[in-house]
Amino acid sequence: MKVAIIPRDPSHSPNMESNDVEILAAVAKELEKAGATVTWLKQGEFPGDGTDIVCHMSRTTAILEILERAVQRGITIINSPAGVRHCSRSIFVTLLEENGIPQPQYTVVKSAKELEALHYPAWIKRADGWSCHAGDVCYAENLTDATVAFSNMQSRGIDACLHCNHIKGDIIKFYGIGEKFFHYCYPDIDHTKFGLEKINGKPQKRRFDTGRLKSIATKAAKAVGVEIYGGDCIVDDDGGIHIIDINDFPSFSAVRENAAKAIAKLIMK
Asked: Which has the closest alpha carbon to 163: 155, 175, 153?
């Protein structure tokens, strides 16, 4: 089997570039141990003749278009270009809503005036794409905070944001690969991408149904259309679980070794 690997563009790996490279390197090692031939592709390079599968972390429009052409030539792409696009924030919140998956109440906002009728505290998040900048997700204690956050986004060319209700509770990170691999953990709030986990504070280890978490996360991944995924949720005081983010191909830094084996197994299968 010939497998091509494409790393994530650095612009989509803020503060996580080395972790993203390390999980791909670990996957490549496991694939080679299983007998696969592995080739690393540069950004924009089309998979060579004889390529069976492309394992990638790409999110840029140009690379996803290349991968769509590869699909038309019979090459399997993990994750699919469509699934990756569905992880764009404005799309995945809609898909979660359509599939009855619990998440914080949200409103799409296209002008600062619309923020005035909404409740606070809340989170102001760029509506398009993924978080690539520290200002793409902001906690707003009040209307003034929200207005400033959205104004800063607009200055960077972002036309719309999501106003998401703030839910008090524990943040939990989850990771999944196919049907069998699933892992969750509490984040180290002192070592995160942008430090936003500190808003909810140190986890209180609120009680919740772990089986339900896996069920909800798996359902969310299927709704979006990704086989290798990660995300974040909030567990509230009553044990309710609310998905707040879902990502295509996270770095799996908390469980890299086992995740690499599971990803390689998925590819070989």
From this structure: 153
For residues 173 and 188, state if they share a domain: yes
Using a 10 angstrom Cβ sphere, with 0-12 exposed, 13-18 middle and 19 or more buried, the burial of residue 74 is exposed
The structure's pTM equals: 0.92
Q: Rounded to 10 degrees, what is the CA torsion of 202, 187, 180, 247?
A: 120
Average pLDDT of the residues in 242-257: 94
259: tokens are 């995740």
Q: Is the pLDDT of residue 193 over 70?
A: no
Examine the pLDDT at 190 and tell me if it is beyond 70: no
Same domain, 171 and 237: yes
Judge contact between 23 and 259, C-beta under 8 A: yes
Q: Is residue 41 part of a domain?
A: yes
**Integer Cα distance of 160 and 155 in angstroms:** 12
Q: Report CA Rg, the chain.
A: 19
Whether residue 159 is predicted with pLDDT greater than 80 in this model: the reply is yes
And the tokens for 91? 């799309």
Domain that holds residue 141: 105-165
Q: Please give the order of strands across the beta sheet that includes 53-56.
A: 37-40, 2-6, 53-56, 76-78
Q: pLDDT at position 16, please?
A: 67
pLDDT at 13 over 70: no
Q: Which two tokens stand for residue 139?
A: 């906690």
98 within some domain: no
Is the CA virtual torsion 248, 253, 254, 258 positive or negative?
positive
Question: What is the number of domains present in the chain?
Answer: 3
